[in-house]
Amino acid sequence: MPESGGRVIRRGAMSRPGAALRCGVMTEPFLFHRGETPLLVSLPHDSPHIPGPLAARMTPAALQVADTDWHVAKLYDFAAGLGASVLCATHSRYVVDLNRDPAGGVLYPGADNTEIVPITTFEHEPIYRPGEEPDADEIAERVATCWAPYHTRLAEALAELRTRFGTAVLFDGHTIKSEVPRFFEGRVADLNIGTAEGAAAEDGLRRIVHRLLDASPYDTVLDDRFTGGYITRHYGRPAEGVNAVQLELTWRCYMDEAPPFTYLPDRAAGLKAVLRPMLEAMRDWAMGRSSAAG
Q1: Domain containing 153: what range?
Q2: Could you tell me the strand order of the sheet in which 85-89 lies?
Q3: Residue 202, exposed/middle/buried by CB under 10 A (0-12, 13-18, 19+)?
Q4: Is the confidence at residue 13, as pLDDT, over 60?
Q5: Gap between the Cα atoms of 39 and 20, Å rounded
């Protein structure tokens, strides 16, 4: 993520610096920018990075890292300039999925769900070469090394915002291919707002986000196919002063959906013209709550 206003983006410290990990994770698990408002933007699936030792164990299909939330940080590159804090992952979801429950809780009961350390792609292709799948110890290692530091910083950032402003709003940004038969029939709506069916965000904030996006040229749904992942459901606690909203938007709105997954600036510009007012409105709503609390 870019620096903004001279404020340095702090890299997260590894839970075990210098450890010789089987998955090869040796770099920091997140980048963090501290903002000036109660809004925090989380981007847990932005990175396609897979460490070399781990990549050597993966299939050619996996090495396309097709399930990345491609270019999502670029879509929200204005967020820091709005005063938002920004937390961004540095490793692929194939290393560990930061938006999954480490206890194994299922997001969508009765549906096909991916694991915290997935072993197949969204196309049901194997991620690992035969005999190279991670065992339980390695999965626990990845959770401790990448998942836990990201969530520790996320929880700390929300606590800091609540202390400073009396409230916090968490925006969790995601993107996905327009058609993913493994999970859904047909084409996914352009913009999918998730608030855990209202459990993660107050109705006033839900209405603001939905009204703005629904008035855009993009198909918009609220708490439909995507009701929010682990991050939205776990941290969104309106009664405790933390509101959380997830937005899952489809690639066709801003990029080429086929490899090499090219970012299309002209197409993306139209989308960003919708996303920016949305984040501004979320920030302003949070600031209004902060002023009322003060």
Answers
A1: 10-293
A2: 10-11, 30-33, 85-89, 39-43, 168-176, 242-250, 191-194, 220-222
A3: middle
A4: no
A5: 36
Mean pLDDT of the chain: 89
Q: How many domains does the chain have?
A: 1
Residue 3: inside a domain: no
**Residues 279 and 208: beta-carbon distance below 8 Å:** no
* 272 neighbors 278 (Cβ within 8 angstroms): no
Decide if 193 is inside a domain. Answer: yes
Q: Answer whether residue 206 is part of any domain.
A: yes
Task: Give residue 103's pLDDT band: very low, low, confident or very high (50, 70, 90).
Answer: confident
In the prediction, which pLDDT does 1 show?
Answer: 37
For 286, the token pair is: 């949070």
Q: Judge whether 1 lies within some domain.
A: no
pTM here? 0.90
User: Scanning the structure block, which residue is given the tokens 């932005």?
Assistant: 46
Distance CA 178, CA 249 (A): 9
The letter for the amino acid at 10 is: R
Per-residue pLDDT tens for 151-210?
Answer: 999 999 999 999 999 999 999 999 999 998 777 788 999 999 999 999 999 999 999 999
Least confident of 106-120, 196-210, 270-284: 106-120
Per the CB < 8 A criterion, the answer to whether 95 and 146 are in contact is yes
CATH number at residue 179: 3.40.630.40
